[in-house]
Amino acid sequence: MKIKNILAFVLVVLVSVFSGVAYAHGVDGETQKFLTNNEGAAFIPFLYIGAKHMITGYDHLLFLVGVIFFLYKPKEVLIYVSFFTIGHSATLLLGVMADIHVNAFLIDAIIALSIVYKGFDNLGGFEKFFGKQPNTKVAVLIFGLFHGFGLATKLQEFQFSKEGLFTNLIGFNIGVEIGQFLALLFVIIVINVWRRYPSYHKFSTVTNTALMVAGFLLIGFQLTGYFVSV
């Protein structure tokens, strides 16, 4: 078996594992207990929860991996990540403060769609099939809005105290940014090292195809959950 086929097989297995734990992406028991019982402002604990949630939020991270995959300059990475941050911060705060409810399965399916979109975009799919390239910054901002609603939905699953809510949300949001920074730092280091080798471009098609496969599998799991729950 050629090495490219072996890599493709490994990636498909990995994305299947990611999808297999799709329902586990959320909040662990200890955190659930804290959120349920907490009263008043608790900036540091919410900051920690936000950071942990982002580091374990592989759907968010898969999308960001796709976003930065072909970005070579630190300035470009900063700009695109900033668009994503503005989007998800806005809807995270708006969703919880205004008590806007969104079906968790549907919003997670849209988040999974963002992974498919970015893999398709990196493969040049829009140019090939539609002859037109969408504005990638606007797309990242829009999908960032949906990712923020996803985070808001996770928090709204708990009937925690409204006392100190804004302070706690700010802490959670900053924690999300810290977790996002740490995760992306690791990803950027790996990608920058990989870029030194010819295999980077050779396997870029396989990698972005794997992103699309992961996104489609996650969409399937989330839509299945939605139709089972209604």
What's the structural blueprint in terms of helices and strands?
Blueprint: H1 3-20, H2 29-37, H3 43-56, H4 58-68, H5 74-97, H6 104-122, H7 125-130, H8 136-156, H9 165-194, H10 199-202, H11 204-229
Class from helix and strand fractions = mainly alpha
Overall morphology: globular
Task: Indicate the multimeric state.
Answer: single chain
Low-confidence stretches: 19-24
What sequence of helices (H) and strands (E) makes up the elements? Answer: HHHHHHHHHHH
Helical fraction equals: over 70%
Distance between the termini: 45 Å
Radius of gyration over all CA atoms, rounded:
18 Å
Give the mean pLDDT: 85
Number of strands: 0
- Tell me what portion of residues adopts beta-strand conformation: under 5%
What is the tally of helical segments?
11
Largest sheet: number of strands, sense, barrel closure: none
